[in-house]
Design goal:
Glutaredoxin, globular, 29% helix, alpha+beta, 7-stranded mixed β-sheet
Length: 153
């Protein structure tokens, strides 16, 4: 994995969101964008992480931050996740994991002794000009939103 670092330009992308709309990172220039990669919708860790971001959405909006969650899930699963958890931000489908690869967050993982390729739980705060301002790679899922908010203070 060759992860994008702070100061680098964020890779541009177009992905389909949970409502079937196309989201282009380029269209969000002028705003801060939190791009958070998570392994799978409706799993315990991913749910806790999404709930934290949902619950602090007003604080993030006050700081001009748009939240985009990206996983390899199909749009239909994202739609169910948004509805079930009352999420108030967009989830994007990266089924072929091309965007995850571009950000350097797709690679070897281990779970219960099994090795496989998948998304690593890493987030990127992209500034108004499209550069990576902060990389979040050391956090607990329940604290992710607090770590992000503290970095914006």
């Amino acid at each position: 994995m060759n992860r994008i670092k702070e100061g680098q330009s964020a890779p541009d992308f177009s992905l389909t969101d949970d409502k079937g709309n196309t989201v282009n990172l380029q269209d969000l220039k002028g705003k801060k964008v939190l791009v958070y990669f998570y392994p799978k919708a409706m799993t315990p860790g991913c749910t806790v992480q999404a709930q934290g971001l949902r619950d602090c959405q007003a604080d993030l909006s006050d700081k001009n931050v748009v939240v985009l969650g990206i996983s390899p899930d199909p749009v239909s699963r994202l739609t169910k996740f948004v509805e079930k958890e009352g999420l108030n931000f967009r989830l994007l489908s990266d089924e072929d994991h091309k965007v995850a690869e571009a950000f350097g967050v797709w690679g070897p993982k281990k779970f219960m002794g099994k090795e496989y390729d998948g998304i690593h739980r890493i987030s990127f705060l992209i500034d108004e000009q499209g550069k990576v301002a902060k990389v979040f790679d050391k956090f607990k899922t329940k604290d992710h939103h607090q770590v992000v908010l503290e970095s914006l203070a």
